[in-house]
Fold this protein.
Amino acid sequence: MAIRPAQLIKFYTYAVSGHSHRVELALSMLGLPFERIEVDLPGREHKSPAYLARNPFGQVPTIEDGDVTLGDSNAILVYLAKRYDSTGRWLPDDPVGAARVQRWLSVAAGELYNGPTTARGYALFRNKPVPTEVVDAANRIFTLLDQHLGKQPFLIGDAPTLADIAIYSYTALAPEGRLSLEPYAQLRAWLARFEALPGFVPMRRSPLPQLKEASA
Ligand SMILES: N[C@@H](CCC(=O)N[C@@H](CS)C(=O)NCC(=O)O)C(=O)O
């Protein structure tokens, strides 16, 4: 019998946060009941004493599941899979499978963050040109992913795992960072395979602001 939460999982999120989208994907793909609580980031609610008590880093996402309060998207993915996926499909228990998933969680917080996530921050929230080194970092990780996904359908093999959930959101959002996925056919095919999975939920797309001309 599937293990279910005793109550709705409280999911503190912000609509345009890719880190939060990771968690929404996991909640939805694992079929878990949850309640969405929008945190007013522009109003700095994430730095209020009440929110900091939940997540001292003052960031979304955060979840509350009974007496468990947890921040950090990748930590939340691990928690949800360990707690509720008794099949071990999303986070294998064997040492090699678990390590392979962890490797991509590290990439999500490292190379992916330094490339596409950062590019989106410049383009969407700071309305600034994306620095060349950030574009280069994004293209390096896209090239690597494209080659890797030419060999197998999902990141650690034939079936999706937390690795795919962690890498999906900011890869799919690349155009919002003024980055093109056009050169990466295998990567685009993987995005389509991932989007066809049961429980997939799209992320709201944000229109890019007009780039401000450099003023004298
Ligand atoms: N390591 C964190 C990063 C989360 C993160 O950067 N969240 C952003 C929104 S996407 C945020 O809350 N930014 C506000 C801030 O850092 O003050 C995770 O994986 O959840």
User: Anything to note?
Assistant: Helices lie at 18-29, 49-54, 73-84, 95-109, 111-125, 132-149, 162-172, 185-195. The two ends are 66 Å apart (CA to CA). Residues 132-149 form the longest helix (18 residues).
